[in-house]
Amino acid sequence: MKRSPFYSEIASYSPSFVTVQGWEVPNEFTSVADEHRAVRERVGLMDWSSTGEFEVKGPDALAVVQRLIVNDASTMLVNRVLYTSILDEAGGILSDITVYRLAEEHYMLMTAWGSNADNERPEYDLLQEYCRGRNAFAFDASPGVGLLALQGPQSRALLSELTPADLDNLPYMWALPAQMAGARALISRTGYTGELGYEILIPAEHAHDVWQALIDAGERFGLALCGLAVAFGLRIEKGYIMRFDFAGGRTPYEVGLGWTAKLDKGDFLGREALIQRKEAGFTEKLVALALQDDYVPATGDAILDGDEPTGVVTSAAYGYAVQHPIALGYVPVAFARVGIRVIIRDGEGDRHPALVAERSAYDPQGARLRS
């Protein structure tokens, strides 16, 4: 069983725990509803130390990154953060990741899981493979770091109490190295919640001090500890994907991430297959579905047009800010229009009305996360 550097501190609050991908992580501290409201209205603290931090250095580091990802890292300035994905040979999404440019010849790939339940590291294995024969080397920094997400409208004010870094001038999807509570930190203006927020990467040996500093400073800001469960509702209100949403070889175009696929940048893993699949056309598209009752769909629930199956739910959660359940699922392209009425059939055969909705139900223009 894998545990984060913050495990002892977290366990002292007696949250419920869950095992995911071989990691024991906190699931709930109070309730999902309370934690959701805390992030939307005040500020929440989440432990994301199960992520992978895979670094590549050397004169050919950019060439390695470019060969691996669908997006174009060639225009990244130092401290820029880029959202992208890694494909398989068939052009389907293997992993969605963020890339950090830490220095001129130094990049970091941050993945959702540093290793899975079988201790496999597919993204890192590919990174090492593409370093072979090039003037670059890769290493797995994950075991030596901890990652905390501080998310919510009060996150900047709280974090400013603990670092001299100029957070007011740190734009969305940028990072900066900084001192924080006596530790070296990499603070990035990133997150999975759709709110103003930061992710803080620190050496594992400073976990206790940084955690305690955040807890102490957070008291007057109404800081709430948040578990894994709340992340599902926060992200689905924004239409952000998780691994269930691209499982089965879905391409960036089907998932709604076509804007990240830079086909003209040069060769990358899965490029030729992706081009062929794009030219052939896609029959389905991932959409958001707003439930018209209180049922939260399960992955695999059928999406119906009348009595005819037309698609399948990939993930779902209750959106406490918008006050109704939301699902993501694949439907025929002809159904991928806002306002189309469908039925979701649950595992017991019961039927639940839903509407195809805007992908982002909460703050669709992204004003809050860019504030």
Verbal overview:
The chain is of the alpha+beta class and 371 residues long. Among the domains are: 137 residues, 2-Layer Sandwich (Gyrase A, domain 2), CATH 3.30.1360; 89 residues, Aminomethyltransferase beta-barrel domains (Elongation Factor Tu (Ef-tu), domain 3), CATH 2.40.30.110. It has ten helices and 19 strands. Strand 1 and strand 2 form a beta hairpin. Helix 3 packs across helix 4. The protein is globular and about 60 Å long. The model has no long low-confidence stretch (mean pLDDT 97).
Labels describing this entry:
alpha+beta; Elongation Factor Tu (Ef-tu), domain 3; six-stranded antiparallel barrel; 371 residues; single chain; Gyrase A, domain 2
Find the count of extended strands (DSSP E, 2+ residues): 19
Distance between the termini: 39 Å
Q: What is the average of the pLDDT values?
A: 97
Main β-sheet, spatial strand arrangement: 10-11-12-9-3-13
Structural class: alpha+beta
Query: What is the CATH homology-level superfamily of the domain at 7-51 and 144-235?
Result: Probable tRNA modification gtpase trme, domain 1
Quote the CATH topology of the domain at 7-51 and 144-235.
Gyrase A, domain 2
Taking all Cα atoms into account, the compactness measure Rg is 21 Å
Instruction: Please state the overall shape, judged from the principal axes of the Cα atoms.
Output: globular
Bin the helical content: 10-25%
Largest sheet: 6 strands, mixed
Q: pLDDT under 50 segments (min length 5)?
A: none
User: Helix count, per DSSP?
Assistant: 10
Q: Which percent range describes the beta-strand content?
A: 25-35%
SSE series? HEEHEEHEEEHEEHEEEHEHHHHEEEEEE
What is the level 1 CATH name of the domain at 7-51 and 144-235?
Alpha Beta
Architecture per CATH nomenclature, i.e. the level-2 architecture of the domain at 7-51 and 144-235: 2-Layer Sandwich
